[in-house]
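README, section 4: Worked example with a bound small molecule

Sections 1 through 3 covered apo chains. Here we extend the same pipeline to holo records, where the ligand is supplied as SMILES alongside the sequence. The molecule in this example is LMY7XDAE. Nothing else about the input changes; the structure line simply encodes the ligand pose together with the chain.
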Amino acid sequence: MSAQILDGKATAAEIKSDLATRVAALKERGFAPGLGTILVGEDPGSQKYVAGKHRDCAEVGLASIQRELPATATQEEIEAVVRELNEDPACTGYIVQLPLPKGIDENRVLELMDPAKDADGLHPTNLGRLVLNEPAPLPCTPNGIIQLLRRHGVEIKGAEVVVVGRGVTIGRPMPLLLTRRSENATVTQCHTGTKDLSAHLRRADIVIAAAGVPHLIKPEDVKPGAAVLDVGVSRNEEGRIVGDVHPGVAEVAGWISPNPGGVGPMTRALLLVNVVEAAERAAAAAAH
Ligand SMILES: Nc1nc2c(c(=O)[nH]1)N[C@@H](CN(C=O)c1ccc(C(=O)N[C@@H](CCC(=O)O)C(=O)O)cc1)CN2
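The generated complex, written as structure tokens:
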């Protein structure tokens, strides 16, 4: 068997094309949404992701506002930029690129953001709204994974899903999205403390691998026909991405997301969705 591809690049392109039409409609009504980014330090991966977010903005017609600080920036200097974007009317949504340099209290920075401008859905208020089933911007990677599965016709309802990882951007929020009534999946969350990861994986209809451990998921761990999403980003000596999923898994799985070209482009597209949806809500509120 050779798995079908969950093509994130093509799916993200479809989403962006729809967003371009919606942004043009907002502009005609006098609303010009803009995405802000705060990047601290010179991590090449983070620089690349942020550059990609601004390219996407240009593609769909969103304004973009970039703030860059050196790796030596203090907590106070970063918080000053957060306050500035909270007040800037041209910036209708923004993100703080993670991770922040060592020594910076990431949670304090996220908590200082205006939740109404939180384009990542990672502010504690918005994560709380998600828990309470209230409308909120959804965390971009988990939402990107759901959209990727839906658009390829992979059945989520009733599926046994194993999420490997418990980080703030993917592992923690992923089960919250999957267990909403609209998805109705049954989720097992695995992590470094899980005793027999392989036993959990072999039962899964859908595997979401976000551990950051190169080739952690082997062909013998995967149930034949399962959908396997690789969100792991490690780099080899040449700087190339090595995912959490061993290439041999493609011979066993029914569906597989390439890495790169799978979940990454979806993360970026769903970020734009959050910005456009917030602007559409503001436009609707102004009309009443
Ligand atoms: N504030 C946030 N920080 C981080 C997030 C996040 O969602 N919000 N997630 C990751 C990084 N990330 C988004 O910021 C991200 C990761 C990967 C990609 C992407 O398009 N990857 C390409 C490959 C690019 C490459 O060659 O390196 C792909 O998968 O095809 C976009 C965004 C951590 N930080």
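What to look for in the output: Residues 48-49, 52, 95-98, 120, 140-141, 169, 241, 259-261, 264-265, 267-268 surround LMY7XDAE (CB under 6 Å). The radius of gyration is 19 Å.

Section 5 describes how to batch many such records.
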